[in-house]
Amino acid sequence: MFLTKDEERILEGESGSVLARAMKLIVTIGDLKSAERLVTIKRSQVAGVSYKTSGDPTLELMESLADEGVKVKTHSTQNPAGMDLERWENMKVSPQFAIKQLRICNAYKNLGIKPVCTCTPYLSGNRPERDEIVGFSESSAVAYVNSIIGARTNRHGGLDALSCALVGKVPLMGLLLHENRRGSVYVDIEFEPNEESDYAAIGYYTGKNLKTGEIPVFTGLKNASNDHLKLLGAAAAATGSVGLFHVLGVTPEAKNRQLVDKWMVEERLSMDKQDLKSIYDELSITESPDLVCLGCPHFSLNEVREIAKKMSGRKVKRGVNFWVYTSPNVYDESLKLGYVDTIRSAGGDVFRHTCMVVSPLEEMGFEKLISNSAKACFYVPRMTKGESMCGLASQKMCVDMFTE
Ligand code: F3S
Questions:
Q1: Residue 271, Cβ neighbours under 10 Å: how many?
Q2: Which residues partner with 316 through β-bridges?
Q3: Does residue 140 line the site of ligand 1, with CB under 6 A?
Q4: Is the preceding omega at residue 216 within 30 degrees of 0, hence cis?
Q5: To bridge 322 with a disulfide, which of 78, 95, 318, 348 should be the other Cys (CB 3.0-4.6 Å)?
Q6: Ligand 1 atom nearest to 140, measured from its CA
Q7: Side-by-side strand order, sheet with 135-136
Q8: What is the CA radius of gyration of the chain?
Q9: pLDDT by residue (tens digit) across 114-143?
Q10: Angle at which helices 95-110 and 51-67 pack, to 10 degrees?
């Protein structure tokens, strides 16, 4: 890969050993994927924040990097942590876990990464422009910024996203290149989705049925909102590593039918009502849940407003916890607008910085979950070695069944 003189100097260690190692990782990845050169980025989303998923090795690595005094060169935000950084006791998280989690977040902050822990950085002040090249990790955020905003990022892992943020560059390859962003398979949705969780089921089904690297072009989703597509993309990214999808007539790169026709897509997959039912059947739990959890990906302000409206004047049934997860920014807004109080008055709660997948569910004592997110349904059993299960249900069903 071609490197400028400045980039070569960083690689040789003139800017210190941490940046040299970061540059080496980026160049190795670029060489493996035949990237021609590096490009400068202004934004990053860095993963590996939750103590549950990253443990002591990450804690030690991040503290040692922060001690070296290096700082990121991009506007960087952090993925969700394992708890609400302020109200962790209300989540039944242990002090032992909390101490280590706070140390990780503090190390990230000392590296210059904004203390904004969320998987929806694009709703929290870190929103790229259309066609802007960024270095994002967090698969749902990657799918969102590529597909719904039309920005460009590859699916970065934790360490490589951090390396790119420290150096301020990414290799020019993969989904950053126009020619690699064309759709490769039509996914015909042959029913009208009624509930937001139907979109999550569509993403789940699509991810499971695509081959690696395929880029779906959905037809039949003309009425999808950005919040619907947020759920769809998160599920497709979880089950099928989808980093980019198009929705005919809706998403920026597929708005124009004639341009889509030029991609000459020949492959087709379809999903009908029976397929939808099979996904709900697959993602169902028979026993009553101990936790109803909404906000995967983190709820937008609209979604918090909607659930507050549905819960207004009702009470969560005994024995059930009803939690909503969102970003710190949306939480602050929701607090000002009274939505958080409405949810709490109904016996529910709202947490920020975290989610059901990256928090220590086992020690919090939750085993049976219900969510409107198929991504959560996919990951919860995997993250708890099968000890916890998660069923799929719409917001409306959650309120109808678990409040009175
Ligand atoms: Fe976000 Fe956690 Fe879901 S990181 S996308 S809320 S699994």
A1: 21
A2: 403
A3: yes
A4: no
A5: 348
A6: 5
A7: 75-78, 43-46, 135-136
A8: 21
A9: 999 999 999 999 999 999 999 999 999 999
A10: 40
Mean pLDDT of all residues in the chain?
97
Rounded to an integer, what distance in angstroms lies between the CA atom of residue 162 and that of residue 136? 9
Q: Which stretches of 148-214 are assigned E, i.e. beta strand?
A: 169-171, 185-189
Q: Provide long-range contacts, Cβ within 8 A and 24+ apart, for 94-98.
A: 94/360, 94/363, 97/51, 97/52, 97/360, 97/363
Q: How far apart are CA 161 and CA 177, in angstroms?
A: 18
The dihedrals phi and psi of 225, each to the nearest 5 degrees, come to: -90, 170
* Nearest CA owner, ligand 1 atom 4: 119
DSSP state of 29: H
User: Cα(180)–Cα(29) distance, rounded to whole angstroms?
Assistant: 17
Handedness of CA 90, 93, 94, 95 (dihedral sign): negative
Q: What angle do CA 237, 242, 245 make, to 5 degrees?
A: 115
CA of residue 354 to ligand 1 center, whole Å: 8
Each residue's pLDDT tens digit, 94-121: 999 999 999 999 999 999 999 999 999 9
Beta bridge partners of 292: 322, 370
- Give CA–CA dist 104/121, Å, rounded: 19
Judge if the beta carbon of residue 361 lies within 6 A of ligand 1: no
**Main-chain dihedrals φ then ψ at residue 185, nearest 5 degrees:** -150, 130
Residue listed under structure tokens 């009208």: 192
pTM over 0.85? The answer is yes
Q: Counting atoms of ligand 1 from 1, which one is nearest the CA of 119? A: 1
Would the CB of 119 count as within 6 Å of ligand 1?
A: yes
Task: Give the span between the Cα atoms of 180 and 389, in whole angstroms.
Answer: 37
The DSSP symbol for 317 reads P
Residue 77, phi then psi, degrees to nearest 5: -120, 165
Task: Kindly give the residue spans of alpha helices, DSSP state H, lying in 187-247.
Answer: 196-209, 226-240
Task: List, in sequence order, every beta strand (DSSP E) within 41-111.
Answer: 43-46, 75-78
d(CA 90, CA 356): 14
**Rounded to an integer, what distance in angstroms lies between the CA atom of residue 86 and that of residue 394?**
29
Residues present in the chain in total: 404
Q: Is 290 exposed, middle or buried (0-12, 13-18, 19+ CB in 10 A)?
A: middle
